[in-house]
């Protein structure tokens, strides 16, 4: 049992470096997202996701010293943090207070500040929580919740900070744990599988958040109801006198908060833009602006009014979601109607305002449980404007396709030899397709939508958002469709890696085999493939370097990065490495660079170099190395990480 003595700090050593407030503040600002993630992971999940997020930010912001302080020089991961005593001091304070926050309250002692709900930061009227990850992240979160606070700290320091056990002991001892408690925490953490790469998932990122309303506003409104009765009667009378009938016809929308002619025109269903069914045939454009209005409820004025009103001011009961970088405010002018109809057990309206697709859905039997989803689609043309998600139900997804789409089919990206299964299209609506974005458990298949028009065939993958991602293959700058047998076989081993790109606002994903490497000990040749996801917001791109041995069913992620130009049209170069064990039992550091790499070198735990873009150095299990490559024009690149 963790005791209340966890906050007792060991005496400072005269040899410890001295940290002043400015140095600690610089480290905290530079590494704030990492420190908040560290606190979030160490805090007990029993606090709930909203309080965990706020507490993690509060503990990190309170980690500065009050004056000059000594700090134990415990190294961090092999980056610029490893010689920064300011970072070591701030990290120690974050770990110590996060452990304190998990202690039970005692009647025999005053509670520590970290055990109480944070006063700041606070967001009134909202619940904040990180974006949801996949099944692996959920399983890891459940396993971490079963650990004690010190064991969670061990796991996170090992995985997130890349600290060896000796340094983990020093951090926990500096945080106030005795030797027995540290030994017990290390043993307990050893029983949890080392899925350290998942700690970088958006599931555990308390700096990238979803927001949902609490019932605070409703309580406040109820408390003021008696005092505001006269004003409420006046407001209701004015609203009921408005064209359209006031609050009632707006369904799940919140009360109107402004009277403005332009905003009223944007919310008038009679002013919706409707494109003629054949307009796309003569237009030079091939985007959402030439989609006709389809569905059996396009003349249901009451439904369209509710959809527009909820878009402008969603009520507390409306479930709102938006892809990253997508504004969720009301339309600036009358939007274009793409669809209004009945799908399964819901009424669905899809609207387009030139920047966003908005999907409104409500149950057939009322407006309770209405949902509003946004997706950013600015600049979408051709393949990126050929379909949107119409409905999700029972693990399946239905799509609304562009009027120029002639055929649709279902294809398992993992099984290129299986062929495509034809799907029906009725008034632009496809038959249901099993969605990989909603699948749980092991990845044994990855179903994608194959669309065919006059210009060719394209593959689209559902990543849990309103607009599916367009899949391509080839060298950055000259990519092509995944339409032939060779391209489909190139994607097959890496299909499951698409699961790491869910809910990121992904626009396109490209797979590119940038190198093939002969393996030591006569083990054949391995493929190096880079998959890069481009986003609609133009930032947050995710890059995975994957390694596949001969005969391997799946590729293994060797390195990953976010928000970097590598493996993209602006910088079509990539360098990555992996530790690999041959069938003969020998360990090697393998590294590969893309075409144009003149030399590759490794330093740190492994030292070696080679001319050209391939490197193989015999080594031991568990070593770490820094990779550096030199391009034929003299430019230096670092290994993807």
Structure summarized in a few sentences:
It contains 14 helices and 31 strands.
Question: What attributes characterize this protein structure?
Answer:
alpha+beta, ten-stranded mixed sheet, five-stranded mixed sheet, disordered N terminus, 31 strands, 641 residues, globular
3D architecture notes:
The protein is α+β, with helices and mostly antiparallel strands. Strands 12, 13, 17, 18, 19, 20, 21, 22, 23 and 24 form a ten-stranded mixed β-sheet that branches. A hairpin with a 6-residue loop joins β21 and β22.
List the SSEs and their pairings.
Elements: E1 18-19, H1 21-30, H2 32-42, H3 49-61, E2 69-70, H4 85-101, E3 126-130, H5 135-145, H6 149-159, H7 165-174, H8 179-190, E4 209-213, H9 216-224, H10 229-240, H11 261-266, H12 279-282, H13 301-312, E5 319-322, E6 336-343, E7 346-352, E8 356-363, E9 371-376, E10 387-393, E11 396-401, E12 407-412, E13 421-423, E14 425-426, E15 429-430, E16 433-434, E17 447-453, E18 456-461, E19 469-473, E20 480-481, H14 485-491, E21 506-518, E22 525-535, E23 542-548, E24 556-562, E25 575-581, E26 587-593, E27 597-604, E28 608-611, E29 614-619, E30 625-631, E31 636-638
Parallel strand pairs: 5-9, 19-21
Antiparallel strand pairs: 1-2, 3-4, 6-7, 7-8, 8-9, 10-11, 11-16, 12-13, 12-17, 14-15, 17-18, 18-19, 19-20, 21-22, 22-23, 23-24, 25-26, 26-29, 27-28, 27-30, 30-31
């Amino acid at each position: 049992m963790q005791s209340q003595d966890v906050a007792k700090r060991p005496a400072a050593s005269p040899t410890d470096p001295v940290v002043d407030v400015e140095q600690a503040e610089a480290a905290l600002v530079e590494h704030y997202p990492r420190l908040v993630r560290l606190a979030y992971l160490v805090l007990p999940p029993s606090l709930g996701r909203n309080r965990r997020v706020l507490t993690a930010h509060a503990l990190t912001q309170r980690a500065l010293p009050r004056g000059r302080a000594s700090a134990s020089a415990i190294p961090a991961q092999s980056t610029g943090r490893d010689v920064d005593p300011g970072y070591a001091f701030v990290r120690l304070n974050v770990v110590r207070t996060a452990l304190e926050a998990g202690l039970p309250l005692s009647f025999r002692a005053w509670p520590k500040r970290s055990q109480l709900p944070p006063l700041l930061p606070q967001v009134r009227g909202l619940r904040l929580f990180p974006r949801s990850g996949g099944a692996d992240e959920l399983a890891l979160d459940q396993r971490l919740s079963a650990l004690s606070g010190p064991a969670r700290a061990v796991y996170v320091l090992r995985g997130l900070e890349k600290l060896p056990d000796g340094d983990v002991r020093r951090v926990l001892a500096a945080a106030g744990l005795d030797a027995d408690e540290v030994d017990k925490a290390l043993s307990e953490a050893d029983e949890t599988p080392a899925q350290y790469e998942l700690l970088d998932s958006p599931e555990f990122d308390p700096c990238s958040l979803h927001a949902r309303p609490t019932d605070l506003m409703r309580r406040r409104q109820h408390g003021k109801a008696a005092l505001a009765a006269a004003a409420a009667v006046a407001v209701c009378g004015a609203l009921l006198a408005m064209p359209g009938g006031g609050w009632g016809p707006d369904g799940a929308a919140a009360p109107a908060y402004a009277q403005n002619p332009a905003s009223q025109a944007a919310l008038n269903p009679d002013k919706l833009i409707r494109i003629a069914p054949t307009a796309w045939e003569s237009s030079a454009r091939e985007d959402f602006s030439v989609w006709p209005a389809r569905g059996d409820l396009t003349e249901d004025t009451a439904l369209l009014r509710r959809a527009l009103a909820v878009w402008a001011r969603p009520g507390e009961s409306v479930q709102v979601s938006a892809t990253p970088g997508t504004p969720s405010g009301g339309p600036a002018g009358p939007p274009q109607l793409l669809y209004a109809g009945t799908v399964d057990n819901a009424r669905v309206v899809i609207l387009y305002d030139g920047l966003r697709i908005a999907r409104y859905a409500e149950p057939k039997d009322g407006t309770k449980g209405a949902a509003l989803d946004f997706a950013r689609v600015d600049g979408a043309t051709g393949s990126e404007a050929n379909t949107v998600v119409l409905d999700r139900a029972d693990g399946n997804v239905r799509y609304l396709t562009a009027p120029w789409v002639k055929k649709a089919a279902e294809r398992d990206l993992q099984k290129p030899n299986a062929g495509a299964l034809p799907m029906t299209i009725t008034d632009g609506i496809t038959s249901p397709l099993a969605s990989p974005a909603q699948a749980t458990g092991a990845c044994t298949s990855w179903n994608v939508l194959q669309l065919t028009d006059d210009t060719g065939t394209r593959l689209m993958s559902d990543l849990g958002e309103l607009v599916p991602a367009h899949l391509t293959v080839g060298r950055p700058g000259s990519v092509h469709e995944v339409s032939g047998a060779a391209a489909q076989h190139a994607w097959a081993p890496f299909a499951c890696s698409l699961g790491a790109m869910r809910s990121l606002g992904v626009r396109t994903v490209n797979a590119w085999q940038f190198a093939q490497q002969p393996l030591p000990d006569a083990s054949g040749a391995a493929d190096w493939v880079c998959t890069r996801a481009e986003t609609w917001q133009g930032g947050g791109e995710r890059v995975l370097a994957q390694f596949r041995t001969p005969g391997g069913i799946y590729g293994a992620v060797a390195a990953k990065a976010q928000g970097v130009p590598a493996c993209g049209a602006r910088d079509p170069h990539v360098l990555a490495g992996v530790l690999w064990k041959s069938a003969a039992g020998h360990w090697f550091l393998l590294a590969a660079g893309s075409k144009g790499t003149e030399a590759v070198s490794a330093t740190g735990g492994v030292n070696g170099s080679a001319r050209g873009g391939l490197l193989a150095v015999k080594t031991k299990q568990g070593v770490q190395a820094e990779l550096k490559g030199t391009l034929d024009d003299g430019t230096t690149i670092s290994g993807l990480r």
